[in-house]
Amino acid sequence: YREAWDKDKTQISIPSDTPVMLQSKLNALNISNKHYQKAWDEAKAKSYDLRADAIPIKHAKASRDIASEYKYKETHEKEKGHYIGCRTAQEDPKLSWAARAMLLQNDRIYRKAYHDSKAQVHIPVDAMSVQAAKECQTLVSDIDYRQYLHQWTCLPDQNDVIHARKAYDLQSDNVYKSDLEWLRGIGWLTEGSVDVVKAKKAQELLNERLYRTRPEEMKFTSITDAPDVVQAKINALQMSDVR
């Protein structure tokens, strides 16, 4: 399939001075990495002379000194202790304001007045709030809620003891379920149970066969001389291939 095209490719010749060829050469020069780095490679091959008093060297040194942390803090370190204007920290408005703000933000000093005065409050023991608090404490106290009864000593043939035993037997779960012990292991058919009957009734209500009557099961007699029946017969005769 490509044999003819492969032969024609070697026989095509385009003049080198056509606009397309010139444009392609310029594009090749523009995207060539070697041509792009040619001047840099030639400069690297030559020797260079860089003096210590050259402008780029001086600029680099000045930038380094400016960016140096030591040079940045040198003036501040020299001026420490030589502030002029206030003899003490209390006379400086800014220092006084900072100290006042620190005192206001200090939590210990903020709560000092409260801690000094909380032990000096005197409340009458018969105050309404104190009485209400005592009653609430009594209601929610677990010790007062659970008061264990002491051990009674009763005769076993007393009427109240016999009555209590009968009441305990009636309330006991073991006695309550003792009549069902004989049912364990016995098989049971669910036919006739309430759930089975309810499921059958629901199935009958949802059964489409019982809900709808099929058309073929309905008995009806069509009228032969009705207009639509007569028209259907005429159309059947007209469309019949045998006719």
TrEMBL record:
UniProt cross-references to Pfam families, sorted A to Z: Nebulin
GO terms of biological process kind: cardiac muscle thin filament assembly
InterPro entries associated with the record: NEBU/NEBL, Nebulin-like, Nebulin_repeat
SMART domains referenced in this protein's UniProt entry, alphabetically: NEBU (SM00227)
One example GO MF annotation: actin filament binding
Keyword tRNA processing (UniProt): no
Domain of life: Eukaryota
GO cellular component, as recorded: Z disc
First and last residue of the signal peptide: none
Keyword terms of this UniProt record: Actin-binding, Repeat
Protein name as annotated: NEBU protein
Gene: Neb_3
